Amino acid sequence: MGTLLLGLAWLMCPRPARMPDGIQVHRADAPALYALLDEVADNLGASRAHVVVVDPAANASVTVVGVRRRTVLTIGLGLWDPLTPQQRVALLGHEFGHLVNGDSRHGPFIGSACKALAQWYYLLRPSRDTRGMGPVEYVSRLFLFPPAYAALLLLYVLDHLTLRTSQQAEYLADDFAARTGSSAAAMELMDRLLLADAFQFWLERQSVSARTTHQGTRGPGEPDEAVWERLAAYVASIPSHEVERRRRVSVLTAHAQNSTHPPTHLRRAALASREHRDAAIVLDVARAKEIDAGLAPARRELGRKVLRG
């Protein structure tokens, strides 16, 4: 019994978040990128990024990992590459804003409680497959149902109680995006988020095409990393009336990045209703090219991953 309880204690003890999957880009590999990240973090009073992880997704996030509480910024090239330099600054302002906006759901206490309740439910929930079960198994299922669904109920209650603060944290992070990259860039970023699923679908289509045909959609002799340039060209070709259509559809469908985010059209409307902000940090084209040069090895490897699996 003591061994069992110690095993449960090991499973349920709070654990720091793990390093996200992707290619790690360190400070020595991309000094221009880290210089921009430090500038954004210092401007907002947030902790500086220790590691940057790059993946092919049309998304971005920031998290704190490990016992030493190291800040890790994840950049998805599927979202990063189609953005203009100033929109990228707004994106970084939004992500670093999460470190200072008081989002309790991702903190060490509430976040650990949510993970613990989810783990309890996973351990206690009865199996749905009843084939081959004897009388003892059926009786044990009856005893497992109450604690398993009590943990699930508590998880739902905790999720409901923290949902409002989590959504408020998104609005505050959007305000940090406007403060850092300008109000105009932050609203343009919202429009890009409305198209994020189209970016992801385009990448998946390139992957399928490359695997089912000899050359795929690439030109002869085209390097793997050119897929990101073609993605940016595809996004630039999307007409303005399609962006406007997406805005109207988002009002009807309450489009959101995920279940914890407010609807995107409300986030954009909130930015438009606030006092206009000029950019605290301006990223010119020359500096943006230096940043892209630091990400070139990761772009090459991820382009190979998209096209070749």
List keywords for this structure.
single chain, 309 residues, alpha+beta, four-stranded mixed beta sheet, 13 helices, 4 strands, globular
Short note summarizing the structure:
With 309 residues, this protein is an alpha+beta fold. The chain has helices spanning 2-12, 31-44, 77-80, 85-97, 110-124, 135-181, 183-194, 196-212, 226-236, 240-253, 264-273, 285-294, 296-308, and strands at 23-25, 51-55, 60-65, 70-76. Helix 7 (183-194) packs antiparallel against helix 11 (264-273).
Number of helices: 13
Portion of residues in beta strands equals 5-15%
Class derived from helix and strand content: alpha+beta
Order of SSEs, N→C? HEHEEEHHHHHHHHHHH
- Can you tell me the overall shape? globular
Cα-atom radius of gyration: 22 Å
Regions with little confidence, pLDDT below 50 for 5+ residues: none
Mean pLDDT level? 84
Report, as a whole number of angstroms, the end-to-end distance: 47 Å
State the share of residues found in helices, binned by percent: 55-70%
Largest sheet descriptor? 4 strands, mixed
- Biggest sheet: strands side by side, in what order? 1-2-4-3
Number of strands: 4
Write down the domain tally: 1
Furnish the topology, listing elements before pairings.
Blueprint: H1 2-12, E1 23-25, H2 31-44, E2 51-55, E3 60-65, E4 70-76, H3 77-80, H4 85-97, H5 110-124, H6 135-181, H7 183-194, H8 196-212, H9 226-236, H10 240-253, H11 264-273, H12 285-294, H13 296-308
Parallel strand pairs: 2-4
Antiparallel strand pairs: 1-2, 3-4
Helix pairs in contact: 2-4, 4-6, 4-7, 5-6, 6-7, 7-11
